[in-house]
Amino acid sequence: MSTDPLQKSRRLLILKLFNEKRYDECESAALRFIQLYPNDPFGWKLAGVASLFLERYQEAEERLLRAIAMNKKDPESLSALGNALRYQSRIKEALSCYERALQIDENHSPALNGKGLSLLDLDKNSPSIEEAVEFFKKAQKITPNQPEIYYNLGTAYGYLGRFDEALAMHRKALDIYPHSHQAYNNLALILQDIGQINEAIDAYDQAIQLKPDWQSYFSNKLFAINYHPDLSPEEIFGAYQAFEQRFGLPHRDTCPPHLNDPRVDRRLRIGYVSADFRSHSTSHFLEPLLAHHDHEQFEIFAYVQNVSFDHLSLRYRKLVDHWVPIAALDDAAVVARIRADQIDILVDLAGHTAGNRLGIFARRPAPVSLTWLGYGYTTGLSAVDYFLTDPVLTPPGCEPLFSERLWRLERPFIAYRPNPAMGDPGPLPAITKGLVTFATLSRGVRVNHRVIRVWSAILKRVPGSQLVLDSKSFQSPAIQEQWAARFTAHGIARERLVMGCHSPPWDLLRDIDISLDCFPHNSGTTLVESLYMGIPVVTLAERPSVGRIGSAILTALGHPEWIAQTEEEYIEKAVELATDLDRLAAIRASLRAELEASPLRDEVGFTQAMERAYRQMWQQWCAGHALRVRDLG
């Protein structure tokens, strides 16, 4: 270290600016320092760290690499470089940086924290999460007043279903630093999973207020609002219109004309954008489509937002013509790539779920765009042309609740491919157990006060019956008691509730007689899995489209008699099923075969319907393009 007093004073000034979170000024001062002392790694490190906080990650990477070249034994620079790489979704490279930092100093808290986060990014399975927890705990002991470590530990606990501990960690982070937007967002994620929707929305609002330019927080809030039991469809859509104002309209006039070849009958280039090209519930519906595409008529691109990959990722990669990783690219770079690829139709598979890239769609990189499958409701973006649906999911008259135009297929909006490991449904459990078992395998975000009141009424009407609540939301013993209290308030004894988490749930499904769908937001994959295992599902037709998923599936299956229009009718239908065991046994014996024979299992027919829709969408764009050219001429 130099003994030059002026050099020291400049260092102190830069550190002061950094500690006061004046990152623009810190960066400028660090760059001046580099001009004066180009061989001092301090300037490169602080310039890199400042640009990291300013969210210019590639620039941060370049500067930190210069600092490390000058001082290879600095754990701070290595950890900061790890952060820059992790923010670019280059997780394995980031992990290597953290590990190098820990070889130099095994107690370097930022590296411990970064390694824990990288483990969470790479693998959401329990062994890796438990390992991440240990790294966070070690970092916590070394720097007990660092809020980031607490909310990261809370995130890990959330992945493990230890929601009471997760809540405690997020609240501890806010005790330390009440202005942590990350802690508010992460707290909201846990609150919604345990069914506290209003509290979750309040926490999201706090995060948005602190960081109004982070689209992910607004998307998370919209996700939660979808499940709200008391808001009207119009109120919910109003929140999506606010999203459009903030994140959509600013890009309206930035989209140059599309120069795609406007021939209507040529081979079309279709791009699918998703963070879920991996083992995920959407695979049961996406893989059938990709597996049956006509590659002579359609050239398929997968724009891959994943940061982790598995055996299913390998299968997806073989089903598409082009595999394009985009997680490390910002929106502008992805838009440029899509335009360079001359994509004709771009398909969003995420909506407002985690890892979405709606910022790309707001910039209209392709002549035609649509949203399908991964979310079940509007994106809120007028830049997205179509919401792909069917007549049951979105009945006539609901068009004002969508920013996109509704494109209704002439058949169900999905085809389903079951997991081959599910096994046979087995005999009706009620006959051998002597009691009827109702169940939901949905996340707790769907189980609200209306649902609990209706389910409690059903349990009262069917003496001796029990209700299974099974998902990660019902795993923690402390949270189980909170759920139980909501039922006991309606007169349901704790012993009639069976709570836990089984994954995969096949053996559990063999122990269930009747599945109870949630509302106003229906279940999705678990609903179809129940039917495939011979279990009838009672659903309530509510809001388009998330409130009519059950109706669309049951209509396609040929069992509209299990669709209720009111809560009272829902109760009656569930009780009627529960009091006729002979009928239940007959349903169990025949339901899988019915599903196999239904349009829900017609993978080829579904793919052909999708391809017809793509071709018709393209024809409409070509017709409009011809009119635009004529008007300009």
Automatic annotation (TrEMBL):
List each copy of the O-GlcNAc transferase C-terminal domain by range.
Answer: 263-413, 438-608
What's the EC number here? 2.4.1.255
Give the keywords, sorted.
Glycosyltransferase, Repeat, TPR repeat, Transferase
Q: For this protein, what is any one GO molecular function term?
A: protein O-acetylglucosaminyltransferase activity
Spell out the PROSITE patterns in the cross-references: TPR (PS50005), TPR_REGION (PS50293)
InterPro entries found in the cross-reference section: Glycosyltr_41/O-GlcNAc_trsf, OGT/SEC/SPY_C, TPR-like_helical_dom_sf, TPR_rpt
Lineage top rank: taxon: Bacteria
Pathway(s) where this gene product acts: Protein modification; protein glycosylation
Q: Which Pfam families match?
A: Glyco_transf_41, TPR_1
TPR repeats, residue ranges: 75-108, 147-180, 181-214
Q: What class of enzyme is it?
A: transferase
Homology family: Belongs to the glycosyltransferase 41 family. O-GlcNAc transferase subfamily.
Protein name listed in UniProt: protein O-GlcNAc transferase
